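Honest question from a wet-lab person: if I give you the sequences of every part of a complex, can you actually get the arrangement of the whole thing, not just the pieces? Trying it with mine:
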Amino acid sequence: MSRLVSGVRSLSRLISLLSLATASNLATAASRPAAQPSSFQVFRDVPSLRQLRHQLLRNERTVGFVPTMGALHEGHLSLIREAARENTDIFVSIYVNPTQFGVNEDLSSYPRTWDSDVEKLEKLNEELGRSGAPGSGQITAIFAPTSKVMYPTLPPSSDIDGQGSFVTITPLSSKLEGGSRPVFFRGVATVCMKLFNATTPDRVYFGQKDVQQTVIIKRMVQDFLIGTEVRIVSTAREADGLAMSSRNVYLGDRRRAVGLTIYKALKAAEDAYQSGKVSRADILGAARSITDQVLAEQRALTPSERSLFEVDYISLADPNTLDELDLVDPTQGGVLSAALKMAPLEENKPGEDCGLGDGKVPVRLIDNLILQPRA
Amino acid sequence: MSRLVSGVRSLSRLISLLSLATASNLATAASRPAAQPSSFQVFRDVPSLRQLRHQLLRNERTVGFVPTMGALHEGHLSLIREAARENTDIFVSIYVNPTQFGVNEDLSSYPRTWDSDVEKLEKLNEELGRSGAPGSGQITAIFAPTSKVMYPTLPPSSDIDGQGSFVTITPLSSKLEGGSRPVFFRGVATVCMKLFNATTPDRVYFGQKDVQQTVIIKRMVQDFLIGTEVRIVSTAREADGLAMSSRNVYLGDRRRAVGLTIYKALKAAEDAYQSGKVSRADILGAARSITDQVLAEQRALTPSERSLFEVDYISLADPNTLDELDLVDPTQGGVLSAALKMAPLEENKPGEDCGLGDGKVPVRLIDNLILQPRA
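Yes, you can. This is the full assembly:
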């Protein structure tokens, strides 16, 4: 069932629907009715994708792979553009992976926007086709598997003691994001191993924004002798600096403005490093003074004016081990990263744009900056 | 360093030796001085192996992969013969994987016999070349990596709470052998994932003797969408029925004779099933009566005459889940398996062949028989 054409599509979708177990999967499938991609094939299962891959291999073509959970934004597109520079063919996966969401996390509310995703990819493919530059590849395949394809034997568990087949990368997985989200990187590593095996790409593309993910994927590729190259692409940002994220649609105007604090705090810390500071106290102190100040300001406002948040962590870590640093070795640099939990709005104002979910969805923002080694 | 020719070999061996950390690795490397393979290449690292693999792929050749820990016997050779029937090229790995040995297990005493292994493979390659039958492949590559190649970042840990990059397959890994050997299948799955990634074989070959390993590898390939086929080859047995194993060299005459009890007990249970019995009590009772009887006989003998053992488990399990069965569904069949711990000899007799290690090495024997579905 490689090329989904109308009649076959409806039937196969019906069959998929019947075999789907969770509400989240139903939501995914239900949001896939209209789009009829023309410039690439959509694959819902592995064997036909593998067939295409083998054909490309025999023709000495190269595959760049961009794994996504859909809800595509400019950050994803920048990964694809980078992949197009280095490969003849680009595979994009769209799959909201349940095993990386903790039991109390936002799996069910994670944005699912199949039609607009396909539209964006079609448009990007046209752009890539027009560019016609030598070495400008195009998207050949979208891999949009069901959970039964990705987890063929046991149902996907995001319980820390859950049963199943998993990849674990310790101690990296338990640091930073892993502190708040104990199953997250087990889920990410597991699904990426599966996706890499299904697509056997020459190169894989990840965004710098999820810095711990980039470190863990690089470690996984190295430790498991995976025959692919890992490319990290700079974080795509809005004009004011906010890192693009699929979750930003839930922010709304008020929380978006206050959420920018994460970037400002990291910038202040980066400035401290660039002005010669190397101690944890000096560098993270600069970030903390920003978050403390903004939080004090917000608290002084009324519930209909303010946006409260909690600093989950602000970290200064070694770029390879992610161990916290007391001092930055200027020949090695470091990773500045942070997570803010944006609380739901307490009170909406009439006519205010409170974002998808009307300001009620808590949003966890993450961001990071790399402290480059000093020459 | 793909083709090891004399001068380069010595130098590269020296470099390897200098970078080796554990006593066990030193033992491995030290036992690799003389053999000069001619009909296949020996690879100690991944990039050059990967280059050969890509070349074979472009030439539409197929690769069958046989992972081993060396100490090759007829069982391994039967896997290679089977691979030769289905592939143009056979890759054999020889690597004693530390992460599958528990801290109190026999990693340091595991037999390392590089020269005789290479000799056996050379001889088998000649035989395969002579057979000249269409579709008779030959061994093209031996992959004999160092531990630094297989575990490039953190040192290989066989501690259950140890840090590193691992594949876990639960609950299958905790059953049967996993009950006595909690890190075993994590180590097996992890090293096989690495080896599969390094060799990207069309087909992989495992012996039926390690039945739980076959179930776990099949599950791993299915769950992680690995693009290879898993072939299971019947257990190679001595004339009297003892399953071949690299560890049998430690038995010596006396323990070898008594060790055959494992096969006799499983045979008695199989006979019970074939005569129409389906209950656990009837089938395993037949096995237990054999082990009980032999143990009673041995206990009645003097320390210089007897060989004591302990039944670790005798199991009747579902062939897919390895869950213990109370009743065999004759349309599904089942897996009969057992493990015996052969104790060290208490007292040697003058002139007695007590095996490698002089009867002092405890030997754990495992074996299994598949109860086929009845038509």
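Two things worth pointing out. Residues 1-35 of chain B have pLDDT under 50 and may be disordered. Chain B has two domains: 6-233, 246-371.
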